[in-house]
Design goal:
- About 4% of the residues have low confidence.
- Helix content is 32%, strand content 21%.
- Strand 3 and strand 4 form a beta hairpin.
- The protein folds into two domains: 132 residues, no CATH class; 209 residues, Rossmann fold (3-Layer(aba) Sandwich), CATH 3.40.50.2020.
- It is an alpha/beta fold.
- The relative contact order is 0.12.
- Helix 8 crosses helix 9.
- The strands form four sheets. A five-stranded mixed β-sheet has the order 7-8-13-12-9. Strands 1-5-3-4 form a four-stranded mixed β-sheet, sandwiched between helices. Strands 2-6 form a two-stranded antiparallel ribbon.
Length: 355
Amino acid sequence: MSNSIDKIIRITCEGAGLMPLTEIKELQGQLKELSVEGYGELKRSILEHGFSFPIEVAVIGGRPFGVLDGHQRLRTVREMVRREGYSLPGGRLPVCFTQCRDREQAGRLILHAISQYGRVQEEGLYSFAHDFKIDPKNLVSDFDIPDFDTERFLTGYFGDGADGLDKPASPAIADYAGGLIYRPTLNKERSCIFASIRKWRVSTKEADLARIREFKEKGDQDAAGSIAGEMAAMIAAMLKNLSGWTVTNPPMGTSIGRGGEHFATLIAEKTAEGLGIPHLPVFTPGARKTTKERKHPGDRAYPPALTIPPSGAGDRFLLIDDVSTTGTTIEQCAGLLGTVGTVFPIVWIYKEALE
């Protein structure tokens, strides 16, 4: 039986003061969502190291206004206390204070403090910009892609059901037990910003995963074609000029189907065909790690290597993958491609949100 001391959240840092958990106000709204994986990582970190960094709180006019940095850590602690039976000694967290002249300055500081554990949501982004009186055009400056249609993005292309893409064209995709959520969006994982088309419906994730594994194992051409159709439609809508772009994909790993087909490669090939631009493989897979070398179950291989792009490859790459869970593969490949040109990473499905 677990000892009650195992359910205590230790405080291992000091701040300028302590604030009751119930009085610390969040300011991000729906700007970001915390993934199940991100919550698990933060929870493990807090249990191993304690709550080791103060929450940064904005002060306006001499009064605490709300959180500038630490939203994901704050939310994790609240979930641990509310849903998992953990206790917080004294019910308070250490905080430090930053003087802000007004609400807009606080909003800009929040954007600078976005953590790796959260994901920017477009529907929250617009609301956030409006609330803090920030020009939305300034919010996409980090996504510096030549030919990217910023205006179309800002006018709401990334809303549910946009441009008639809300219904899959293929019965193979439409026949999901739970159904994936159509929500094109821009995501940020550590150093990588990438686009995605769909997300998991958390309650039916396992059924969806089983179906996707089936597609992969069979090297399902119909499913790959339907997915590629969604990819091509969004890319064509977002890029004003496809000249000079080359489609590529992460290297083949262990997910090779019985027919010898790599599903992400199939999707990339069909996407390139639909767009009328070349598809070229430019990666070799990293060496497999031994059990001792792995830091966690998903840590199975060393990063891939970038080969010399074949003659005729442009310096602008559409990096396409089927499913992203941690974002590590797409980040590694995007980083390598970024050393030789411009990369626009896009995945079909991005990981689920914590509901």
